[in-house]
Amino acid sequence: MNFFASYVQNLHGVLDQLDLAKVEGTVKLLAEARDRGQQIFLCGNGGSASTASHMANDLGKGASLGRKMPFKVISLTDNIPWMTALANDLSYEAIFAEQLRNFAQTDDVLIAISGSGNSQNVLNAVEVAREKGVKTIGWIGFGGGKLASMVDVPIVVDSDHMGRVEDAHVILMHLVCYYFMEQES
Q1: CA–CA distance from 90 to each of 85, 96, 104, 178 (Å)?
Q2: How far apart are CA 6 and CA 145, in angstroms?
Q3: Taking the CB of the first residue and of the last residue of the chain, which one, N or C, has fewer CB atoms within 10 A?
């Protein structure tokens, strides 16, 4: 029982340190993009990829269905044939950046999710996004890594424990999505 109580207690501490002003800033950027008809892209690896997919689902359906202004949201983690072709023919580091080259336009938004903040394929996506005038948000742990200084809005989860970082990212995702589902309904 001590392990479980300790894990939950540590997670509470991590959540208490979240910068809610930056969460609000994320909501504002996403609302502005939606209202202008811009696209929102998400990317990440492993657990962060599943958070990206989950957020695309919740924004694309939950926060859009039956609404006057739906979100145009794409998780760059979800086109497996394209990702594997890019990884095979170019490099794994190109799987998100090359998709963005095809789709991204000025004033779109990219949410880059990386526990370490140092995943090269995520960093490359942010570089392409910046070249194209895309607004960037980073959800990161482990002190922020390289990603924190590259994005417009970094939200750094104050933990060096991947499980708690990923837990906090899922909570961030639900904070943002349920804002749109419950506050703007």
Answers
A1: 8, 12, 20, 38
A2: 26
A3: N
Burial class (CB in 10 A: 0-12, 13-18, 19+), 18: middle
CATH of 2-183, one of 3.40.50.800, 3.30.1360.120, 3.40.50.10490, 3.40.50.300: 3.40.50.10490
Q: Domain segments of the chain: what residues? A: 2-183
Q: What is the pLDDT of residues 21-79, one digit of tens each?
A: 999 999 999 999 999 999 999 999 999 999 999 999 999 999 999 999 999 999 999 99
Neighbouring C-beta atoms of residue 185, cutoff 10 Å: 8
Mind listing the pLDDT tens digit for each residue in 115-166? 999 999 999 999 999 999 999 999 999 999 999 999 999 999 999 999 999 9
Q: Is the alpha carbon torsion for 155, 104, 42, 178 positive or negative? A: positive
C-alpha–C-alpha distance, residues 76 and 79, integer Å = 7
